[in-house]
Design goal:
Layout: E1 6-8, H1 13-16, H2 35-55, E2 60-65, H3 69-85, E3 88-89, E4 97-102, H4 107-126, E5 131-136, H5 142-151, E6 157-159, H6 167-176, E7 181-183, E8 197-199, E9 204-208, E10 210-211, H7 222-226, E11 230-231, H8 234-246, E12 251-255, H9 272-280, E13 287-291, H10 300-308, E14 315-317, H11 325-331, H12 337-350, E15 355-362, H13 369-382, E16 386-391, H14 409-432, E17 438-446, E18 453-458, E19 463-467, E20 476-484, E21 488-493
Parallel strand pairs: 2-3, 2-4, 4-5, 5-6, 6-7, 9-12, 12-13, 14-15, 15-16, 19-21
Antiparallel strand pairs: 1-8, 10-11, 17-18, 17-20, 18-19, 20-21
């Protein structure tokens, strides 16, 4: 049973007041955020302490995450609130309180959650005190809420993506009643940070720089469940990163559905490239990553900043989705095959050692095998270091779901298999280019499959396993890349 113990807490004292003291529960809860949530965290501590005493053991909690890096960051916040409220964190679904942070990008993600609910219901029947919560993107779909209310009435708490910061307050509501608590916001322009969080690694962290999406790709439900784009103020982002650096964090990943759109809706607009330059200036931060970038608005300024930086990692995730201009137009991606190829060539010419990775969908409505061949052509010409390939998933509520010419599964699978073979071949060739080189690796952990090895990550995101002292975890060290195993290396520390 794994325990996560790295706790992160940032509080902007100028905006929220000093929250290091214990809130006075004899008074009404504050109205301003996040002080209001610290009040409810303290109130939760009382409820959790009382239940722990009644049951005769410390209460445990597990946050089970589905989906993207932004969901993972949200789960860190949920875990931090739980830990500060008095729960002992675990990775086991046998915990006293289980929270499923859901994804709804593809239908199979929804089915996985329903499957987990069936499993956890059997545990709840054996342990009536067990509590279950659901949150995340899937909860923003009205049809999902109706299904849970009808078929999964044992769920105790449901909330969505827009009010995650209210988790402590909702926990109190759950403890104070005996009915399912549902709190879903359709949308919001509110951004509340400076709450507790936990991190798996003490030396690296994700940072939300913006929320929501304005792109409305025809296959994607994210803008409907995450809302419109909202950028955090740069001073808040930079303050959080300085705090993390003071705690020993050496690598940060800036997160947004499309980081290239960062800052456009601020009172004083700021480009993403300029934000990166500001992050570069923070002492203690040695590596900067970000995702995701939309090809339609990746600027020359951003390429220039990446090319000149010693801190920005040599890795760019640039979703293609399709190599067919006709399909890209139907997807509402707002670039052509030729524009994508020109952009990739420009990036590689300015940053020769860049690692390009991508996302590709096969089986979009109306796609033919000729369209798949166009995508394969792009893969061969760009030579991606890795590509995440998916069969198209029909999402109710998106324009693509209502399109004619839905591709039969068997036909889509045939195209998928052809593409996957090409992706694997080109990716192996790209990774193999590093053989014999010495590269800096951030040591992340003891290899879970071979405790005699450490696992590190190169700037370009490639993994390397090598012998070393566990005391090196969290440090950046030079590693000679000796044996290429397709998508990773076996190496040794360089002298």
């Amino acid at each position: 049973m794994g325990m996560r113990t790295v706790v992160e807490k940032q509080a902007n004292e100028k905006r929220t007041g000093d929250m290091s003291g214990t809130p006075d529960l004899t008074r009404e809860p504050p109205r301003e955020e996040p002080a209001r949530q610290y009040y409810f965290i303290e109130k939760c501590r009382q409820y959790i302490s009382e239940e722990s005493d009644r049951l005769g053991h410390p209460l445990t909690a597990a946050v089970i995450t589905f989906g993207c890096q932004m969901n993972a960051r949200d789960s860190e916040k949920l875990s931090g609130i739980l830990a500060q409220a008095g729960y002992v964190l675990t990775d086991s679904e046998e915990a006293d309180f289980v929270i499923y942070n859901t994804c709804t990008v593809r239908d199979n993600a929804n089915q996985r959650v329903y499957g987990r609910l069936g499993f956890v219901n059997s545990m709840k029947k054996k342990n009536p005190h067990k509590r279950v919560a659901l949150c995340g993107c899937m909860m923003q779909e009205p049809s999902v809420i109706e299904k849970i209310k009808t078929s999964y009435r044992f769920v105790d708490l449901i909330f969505g993506t827009h009010n995650l910061f209210k988790f402590a307050e909702l926990l109190c509501t759950m403890y104070e009643g005996d009915r399912m608590v549902i709190d879903i916001w359709k949308d919001t322009d509110q951004i509340v940070e400076a709450l507790p969080a936990t991190r798996k690694y003490p030396f690296k962290s994700g940072i939300n720089i913006m929320f929501g999406c304005d792109n409305f790709c025809s296959y994607c439900i994210v803008p409907y469940v995450r809302g419109r784009e909202r950028s955090r103020r740069p001073e808040d982002i930079l303050g959080e990163i300085r705090s993390l650096a003071a705690q020993g964090v050496v690598e940060v990943m800036l997160l947004g559905q499309n980081v290239n759109s960062y800052g456009r809706n601020l009172e004083r607009p700021m480009s993403f490239a300029r934000l990166l330059r500001e992050v570069e200036q923070i002492d203690g931060i040695e590596r900067i990553r970000f995702m995701t970038s939309h090809p339609k608005d990746l600027s020359d300024e951003l390429i220039a900043v990446m090319a000149s930086s010693d801190k920005i990692c040599r890795h760019l995730h640039l979703p293609l989705q399709s190599g067919s201009t006709r399909i890209l137009q139907a997807m509402n991606r707002r670039y052509t095959k030729e524009q994508y190829l020109a952009l990739a060539e420009k990036i590689r010419s300015r940053i020769p050692d860049i690692s390009l990775t991508t996302d590709i969908i096969v089986g979009f409505p109306g796609e033919t095998m000729a369209d798949v061949e166009e995508t394969i052509d792009v893969v061969k010409r760009v030579k991606f270091d890795n590509a995440f390939t998916f069969l198209y998933s029909r999402r109710t509520g998106t324009p693509a779901a209502a399109m004619e010419n839905q591709v039969p599964r068997k036909e889509a699978q045939a195209g998928f298999d052809r593409l996957l073979s090409c992706v694997q071949e080109t990716a192996r060739e790209q990774v193999a280019r590093l053989s014999g080189q010495t590269q800096d690796a951030l040591v992340e952990e003891i290899n879970p499959h071979d405790p005699s090895l450490l696992t590190g990550r190169l700037s370009n995101n490639t993994i390397v396993h090598f012998p070393g002292d566990p005391a090196l975890i969290g440090r950046i060290v030079p590693v000679a890349l000796l044996e290429n195993h397709g998508f990773y290396f076996i190496g040794r520390m360089a002298k």
